[in-house]
Each structure stands twice: as structure tokens, then as C-alpha cells.
Design goal:
This protein is an alpha+beta fold and about 250 residues long. It contains 5 helices and 12 strands.
């Protein structure tokens, strides 16, 4: 087991290289990444990978301004199972002066396209916030820095506290540079809340997240399911304010 203070993002094993204007990612799929009770890759893992790749594109274009995530979505055509590696290609769709839109495609190890996603970032309006320019952010992902050896929810400390409810603490191994919960990792309680809201075995194959404010104390995700869709709200456990609204699509596991 890795120390709690090491980064969960590092343990997701993502390696990235710049290829022209694109970022190409690859990561090994291990059993700790499977959706509970299945051999299918959890969508929250894919969302975290997407957040890293698309965020790096935004950093590259917006620095020294700090990018703020407004929306992030990932959609899988089918469950991802049986492939040793997932590969991804991320590119910029629109690089405006204030709004930044990117897209990403996901492939199995043999080149089969299995999903896609998008992101919407904006430059932080506070002019006092800034970050360094250069390749420092991308350099952190040039080689494997860790590997997930226990189920993702366990590694993150996400706990299902009731049907349709999951909580994620503001622990050091989950925080971003602003000392708030990493936006991509908020997909973990969103997915767990959706999975626990129904009695039958299901999995999430599509997830869309809209970010309203940062989570500073802890995240409480609450899901309501009707048919194959789950409406999920994420609130800060301290202030009670809504931080994320999300929509998840469920399929039989």
C-alpha cells in the first residue's frame, strides 16, 4: 500500500507525450481500476485521465493565467474490459482568450475507439492568480510515477454512507495546487453515489460534470436515479454549498 500522502493521480499510471499539437496518453488497466463486482474499467478512472490531459492543454494555452474547470464529460460506447492498456488523444477545439474547449478520444490497446469526452475551461478572473509557463506540468507525466494496488474508492477514501450517497474527504493525496479537491477525482463520489442508488448491479458508462465552486472541506455526493439516468449533486460538507452537478448514465453490469 502506498503512503496516504502520495498522489492518487500519480497512482493512476498515466504517461503523456506531446505529438504535434496533441497530447497522447497511455495507462495500464489493473484490477484496482475495475467497477465493483465487474472486470470493467471504472468511468471515474477515465474521467481522471481526461481531466489531466485536457487540463494540461489548457495550462499550455492559458498560462500564466490559471485555468478553472467549468465542465468535463466522458462517454463510453461500451464497457472497457480485457484490454491491458487504454490510450488517449487530446486536442484543442477552441483556444479563446478566456474560454478554452478541448476534446479527447479513447482507444483500446489494439486501436479500437471506445469513447470520447470534452472539457470547458476558463481563465481565472482574479489577476493575482498566476502559474509558471513552460513544460513543467507535462514533465510530471513523462514516466509512470505509481500504480493503483487497491480499489480506487478505497485508495481515495471514498465511503458510501447510504443508498445514493457517497463522501470523499479533503485529504492531502486528493488535493490540487489550490488545496481543494481535485476536479477529476470528484468523479469518484459521483460514480459511487450513482452505483449505490439502485439495488441491481450496474455500471456508469457516461458522466457529465459541471463545476460550480471548489470543494474545500469534503464532498458529499447524492444521486437520484430514474430509468437509466442518475442526477447527482455534490455539496461541500463544510458549507453545504453545491459544488458540482452531474449526470450519469447507467447500464447493467
Amino acid at each position: 500500500m502506498r503512503p496516504e500522502t502520495s498522489s492518487v493521480l500519480a497512482d493512476l499510471g498515466l504517461v503523456i507525450e506531446a505529438v504535434g499539437d496533441e497530447l497522447h496518453g497511455s495507462a495500464a488497466v489493473v484490477p484496482a481500476m475495475w467497477s465493483p463486482g465487474t472486470t470493467n474499467l471504472r468511468v471515474s478512472v477515465v474521467v481522471a485521465w481526461a481531466d489531466i490531459l485536457l487540463g494540461l492543454l489548457a495550462v499550455g494555452d492559458l498560462a500564466p493565467r490559471v485555468p478553472v474547470t467549468l465542465e468535463l464529460d466522458v462517454h463510453l460506447f461500451e464497457s472497457i474490459s480485457g484490454t491491458p492498456t487504454v490510450r488517449s488523444v487530446a486536442s484543442v477545439t477552441k483556444a479563446g482568450s478566456m474560454v478554452h474547449v478541448c476534446s479527447i478520444q479513447f482507444f483500446t490497446d489494439d486501436g479500437k475507439r471506445v469513447g470520447f469526452g470534452h472539457s470547458l475551461f476558463m481563465a481565472a478572473p482574479d489577476p493575482r492568480l498566476s502559474m509558471p509557463t513552460g513544460s513543467w506540468a507535462l514533465d510530471r507525466f513523462k514516466s509512470v510515477r505509481g500504480m493503483l494496488v487497491e480499489p480506487l474508492s478505497v485508495r481515495a477514501g471514498c465511503v458510501r454512507t447510504g443508498p445514493g450517497v457517497a463522501e470523499l474527504p479533503c485529504a492531502p493525496h486528493l488535493l490540487n495546487s489550490s488545496k481543494t479537491l481535485n476536479g477529476g477525482l470528484l468523479a469518484i463520489p459521483v460514480e459511487d453515489a450513482a452505483l449505490s442508488a439502485v439495488d441491481t448491479p450496474v455500471m456508469v458508462t457516461s458522466l457529465q460534470m459541471r463545476y460550480l465552486r471548489p470543494v474545500r472541506t469534503g464532498a458529499i455526493a447524492t444521486a437520484v436515479v430514474q430509468g437509466t439516468l442518475a442526477e447527482v449533486e455534490v455539496r461541500d460538507s463544510g458549507s453545504g454549498a453545491i459544488a458540482v452537478v452531474a449526470t450519469a448514465r447507467l447500464e447493467k453490469a
